[in-house]
Write a structure and sequence with these properties.
Blueprint (H helix, E strand, L loop, with lengths): L6 E6 L4 H9 L1 E4 L22 H15 L5 H14 L5 H18 E7 L5 H7 L6 E6 H8 L2 H4 L4 E5 L1 E3 L12 H10 E3 L7 E7 L4 E4 L5 E6 L5 H12 L6 E7 L6 E5 L3
Parallel strand pairs: 6-7, 10-11
Antiparallel strand pairs: 1-4, 2-9, 3-8, 4-10, 5-8, 11-12
Helix pairs in contact: 2-3
C-alpha cells in the first residue's frame, strides 16, 4: 500500500442494519455505482469517436492479439483488416451501444466501498451519518492491505484501493490512450471537483456487487460517535464494541465553542 492514509473512515447511520453490521459482524457492504447519490458516478463515457485512423487500427490489432493467441501473424493481420473495413468505431450507433454496455458492466461487475481520509468533516457527518446522530468507523489500512493481499482471502475477493480523482472540467476518456486497467477504473474513480470535500478513497471489488465481505476483527481501529447521538444509540454502540474481540479506540465528536469545527474526545469503555 503506497501513499494511502494509515486510517480511512466510513460514516454510518446506526439505524440502518447493514451499517450496524460493520461493528457487530465485521462486515462491509460493496454497492454498485448505480446506487450512489452522484448521477455522474460511473457514467462518464469512453470516447471511441476520438480515435485517429492509426489508433483505431492499433486497437483492433491489440484486441485480436489478446482474443486470438493461436492465430499466426498473417491471420491476425487479415482479421484486423476485416474489422477495420466494417468501420464500427466510426459508427455513432455502435459507439453509443458500446458505451452503454461498458456502463452496465461497471454497474454490474464492480462493487464499491467508499471511504474518506477525514473523520471530523461536518458535511460528511451531515450527509452520511444521520445529521451527526450516527457513527464513523476508522479502518486500519495497513491491516486491510495485509488481508486483501493474503492469497487465501484474495483468491475469492479481488479488491483494489484507489484515491478518487476530482476534475473541474468534464473529462474526456480516450480509450485509445488508456490501458485495460484504466478503461475499467477511470470511470469509477473520477468525480466532479464539487465532491472534493469528501477526500474519498474507494475499495473496488471485482466481479461482485451489492454483497457483504468479511473483515478481520482487528482492522476496525477507531469508532467515533456523532455530536448529536442519542443516549440510547450511544449505549447500544458501546455494548456492541464491548462484545468484540478487539477493542477499537472510541471517541465522541463535539462542536468547537468559537469556530465552525468539530473536536474529538476519547471515551473509556
Amino acid at each position: 500500500m503506497t501513499d494511502n492514509p494509515d486510517i480511512l473512515y466510513k460514516y454510518r447511520d446506526w439505524h440502518v442494519e447493514k451499517h450496524r453490521r460493520i461493528l457487530s459482524h465485521n462486515k462491509i457492504f460493496f454497492t454498485s455505482a448505480r446506487n450512489f447519490n452522484d448521477p455522474f458516478d460511473g457514467t462518464i463515457p469512453l470516447r471511441y469517436d476520438k480515435g485517429s485512423r492509426q489508433e483505431i487500427s492499433d486497437k483492433y490489432s491489440d484486441r485480436i492479439n489478446k482474443d486470438n493467441p493461436n492465430l499466426n501473424r498473417i491471420q491476425k493481420r487479415d482479421l484486423a483488416k476485416k474489422w477495420r473495413k466494417k468501420g464500427l468505431l466510426r459508427n455513432r450507433t455502435h459507439i453509443k451501444m458500446t458505451q452503454d454496455m461498458t456502463r452496465e458492466q461497471l454497474f454490474n461487475d464492480f462493487g464499491i466501498f467508499s471511504l474518506s481520509a477525514e473523520c471530523l468533516n461536518i458535511l460528511l457527518w451531515t450527509h452520511y451519518s444521520n445529521s451527526h446522530r450516527g457513527f464513523c468507523v476508522g479502518f486500519d489500512m495497513q491491516k486491510l492491505d495485509n488481508m486483501r493481499n493474503d492469497p487465501l482471502y484474495y483468491a475469492d475477493n479481488l479488491i483494489d484501493i484507489h484515491k478518487v480523482e476530482y476534475e473541474i472540467d468534464y473529462p474526456l476518456f480516450n480509450p485509445y490512450k488508456m490501458d485495460d486497467e484504466e478503461i475499467t477504473q477511470k470511470p469509477l474513480i473520477t468525480k466532479s471537483s464539487a465532491w472534493s470535500y469528501e477526500n474519498e478513497y474507494r475499495l473496488i471489488l471485482f466481479d461482485k456487487t451489492n454483497v457483504e465481505i468479511d473483515l478481520l476483527d482487528e482492522i476496525i481501529a477507531e469508532v467515533y460517535l456523532g455530536c448529536k447521538i442519542s443516549p440510547e444509540d450511544k449505549e447500544q454502540i458501546i455494548d456492541a464494541l464491548q462484545k468484540r474481540k478487539n477493542r477499537p479506540e472510541l471517541f465522541i465528536t463535539k462542536m468547537q465553542e468559537n469556530s465552525f469545527g468539530l473536536i474529538k474526545e476519547s471515551i473509556d469503555y
